[in-house]
Amino acid sequence: MRLLTTTALATALALPALAADPELTVFDWAGFEEPSIFQGYVDKYGDNPTYAFYGDDDEAFQKIASGFKADLVHPCSQMVSKYRDAGLIEPWDTSRIPEFENIDKRFLASETFVDDQGVWYIPSDWGVTAIAYSNANVTPEDVSTLEVFTDPKFQGRTSLPDSSDDVWALAYLATGVTDWTDTTDEQFAAAAEWLRAAHQNVAAYWADPAEMSQLMASGAVDVAWSWNDGIVYLRDDNYDVGFQREAKEGSSTWFCGFINIKDGPGSEDKVYDFINAWLAPESARGLLDTIGYGHTNLKGMETIADDPAVAEGLSPVEVPILAQTPNDPAQRERQLAEFEKIKAGF
Question: InterPro entries annotated for this entry (predicted)?
Fold first, then answer.
């Protein structure tokens, strides 16, 4: 397996790819172009949408804000307020989305998503961030605590996401914070200090789960803070990887979904056909098998409830959980700026 550099991967992800149906452009994370996730759309039109890819949420927002043309974007929950505040999106007409009523209501419990002006966000998928580790080189005791990321034994052998949200979720958990919606200056400072210590062990920050899996499979790192999909990719390549969601300090959950870009260049009818295909209960199987994520449609989750991948990666755990729900935009910007300084060695 060839090890991609972060720069090379980011360049590849920034380019439009998989040009197909010219009447629908989806700006998305790499990996979600798998047709089994939106099979109903392919069945109706005989083709995939045209896809363009980004490496992280902040990159996607900057491109859209700078004029990149797309019909749909797939941000995680913390980003929706930025698109709303910038006037880039329009509310969804939920009367055109039959499965909307079956979305787990916990994913809509924010005025950022639903208010008296309408529904601004369609949650579609969710997952967890936890410790991926090499069973050959790391013991269960090593990963019983998040301090594995600061353990001198693993200097130069760890990888963290190049994602401010995920690394701050890790740092807050490691320093005893499980709700980031109401953090103090002291808690922020403690988490930043912990991140600086963890930075000393980092061999590379991964920009995409495929890059993380390449780092581990190549032997470059033994421990990573990982989403579910990185584990899927590693096991598909027969790499013996564990996924520790029950470190004593806890793990993190998050969810993502779709926003409808105002004045998108494509067909609005196809926008709704696509989101309806995504939300169809039968799409839960494609999402789980391809990426390892859960479906926000409760009927969809019922179809995969007995799958071992759900038991390992998506079932409830008996440790603290930091839910990556929307937090204060100013706090998020503060975290992003501090993370950039930490990566630069300051």
Answer: SBP
Strand duo 251-261 + 321-323: pairing: parallel
- Cα distance between residue 227 and residue 215, in whole Å: 14
Contact 256, 123 (CB under 8 A): yes
Per the CB < 8 A criterion, the answer to whether 132 and 239 are in contact is: no
Identify the pLDDT of residue 329.
Answer: 87
Between CA 252 and CA 238 the distance in angstroms is 26
User: Which H or E element spans position 254?
Assistant: strand 251-261
Helix-, strand-, coil-residue percentages of the chain, each rounded to 5: 45, 20, 35
326 in Cβ contact with 112 (< 8 Å): yes
Give the DSSP letter string of 267-301.
-HHHHHHHHHHHHSTTHHHHHHHHH-PEESBHHHH
Tokens of residue 193, six digits: 């200090």
How far does CA 232 lie from the centroid of its chain? 14
Is this prediction's pTM over 0.85? yes
Yes or no: say if 319 and 248 are a contact pair by the CB < 8 Å rule.
yes
Per-residue model confidence (pLDDT) at position 18: 58
What the block records as the tokens of 346 is 């300051």
Type of residue at 327: N
User: Which carries the bigger pLDDT value, residue 158 or residue 17?
Assistant: 158
- The radius of gyration computed from the CA coordinates of the chain, to the nearest angstrom, equals 19
Q: Residue ranges of the alpha helices (H) in 25-139?
A: 39-45, 57-65, 80-85
pLDDT in tens, 187-242: 999 999 999 999 999 999 998 889 999 999 999 999 999 999 899 889 989 999 99
**Amino acid occupying residue 257:** G
Task: Tell me what pLDDT residue 17 has.
Answer: 55
- Residue 327: the pLDDT is 86
- Taking only the tens place, the pLDDT of each residue in 263-279 is 999 999 999 999 999 99
The answer to whether 231 and 128 have CB atoms below 8 angstroms apart is: no
> Residue 255: what are its φ and ψ, rounded to 5°?
-150, 155
